[in-house]
Task: structure prediction
Amino acid sequence: MNFQLSRRTLLKSATCGMGYLALADLCRAADAPAYTSPLAPKQPHHEARAKRMIFLHMRGGPSHMETFDYKPALADRAGKPGRTKNRLLVPPQWEWKQRGESGLWVSDLLKHTAEHADDLCVLSGMHADIANHTPAMLQLHTGNFAFTRPSMGAWILYGLGTENQNLPGFISLCPPLINGGTKNYGSAFLPAVYQGTAVGDVKTNVKDAEIGNIRNERFSSLEQRRQLDLIQQFNRHYAESDPADSQIDGVIESFELAFRMQDELPSVMDLASESQETLDMYGIGAGKPSDNFGRQCLLARRMIEAGVRHVEVCDEFWDQHAKLKTGHEARAKSTDQPTAALLTDLKQRGLLQDTLVVWGGEFGRTPDTSKKDLDGRDHNVKGYTMWLAGGGVKGGFKFGATDEFGYEAVEDKVHLHDLHATILHLLGLDHTRLTYRYAGRDFRLTDVHGRVVEEIVA
Result:
């Protein structure tokens, strides 16, 4: 039989064949399970009081005797020996007043934050386990100072996911390069998708900080999408072939997030849309000591408003073994006005009620010093103060106490494990159920410790 195929017939048949191939691919895709991002929002264990969190990290250890733990006995016994003969008691360096309707004691060092006394839940019985900066910061952030563990922000992201898939769910603004460095916002053995995204570092003003690898000057968005689709096909095939390897999920999410952030992150980071009144409220302006921290606090508000789950704002070093008065005064000039502005701004926008704000350092400071000029305090992990605001905690409320001089917590003590358990509880997570199996055992942020401090929950 003489069979002849014209050019027109060949082209028509080939065109149909391409359609059949496309249809087959669509059918295969329909049968395949839909890809679900590990960062997608998740249901909490119980009704949450807070939907998001901002941690104002006062790195180095602010003195509780100069901020929120009133100790008149120190003024009465100034210059006299403390618990040891070679150490002298240091008087408080600022005046104290009872503030707001609650009468909460706050020193004049933090006069702007003092205006929010009725919003603050002050934990004056805080204590932890080790009085050196690096292990103490690691314990504050991860619950453990001896081993590498996931950070609190990573656990929160793992437990709750994030509301905005175009932005990181956990952001650390200007984090320190030392004292644990990246471990303070890392994911350790949790899947890599839950680690924090650093914006700048402590040595870089946040106005000059950028997130790398989210710009492409050579290709259009459509061209980038086509390239990424091809790469992600290979990545997902590899992920399906080795489900136990969670690192490839982190690669997939980081590529996708970087692509999506090109559109949304620059607008969130750009403060040009903010009014001059708002910038002034936060203390933002060239030459102002509060400019950098003010920018961080305003960015934190913009980020959580845009759907970021957890933001950490990092300050410089409150570590004044000497020159206590000038050192703490400098830190207060940088942070006090922006902190108060953040609380004001959140409240005005109706966000404070379901945003948990946490303020504090890795430990406090001693009531005494070996310095003869009485102008310094050393590390103190046995008793110190942190405060919480919004997010379901009691305002204008002080819980716990140190002894008459502030050496150690003696009443209603709150360990860091208890603080972590309470933070998770307010966010709707049961710290005993938020676990991840690794190396043959279930791990959690609080290890085998921690209790929810129900007394501070509103």
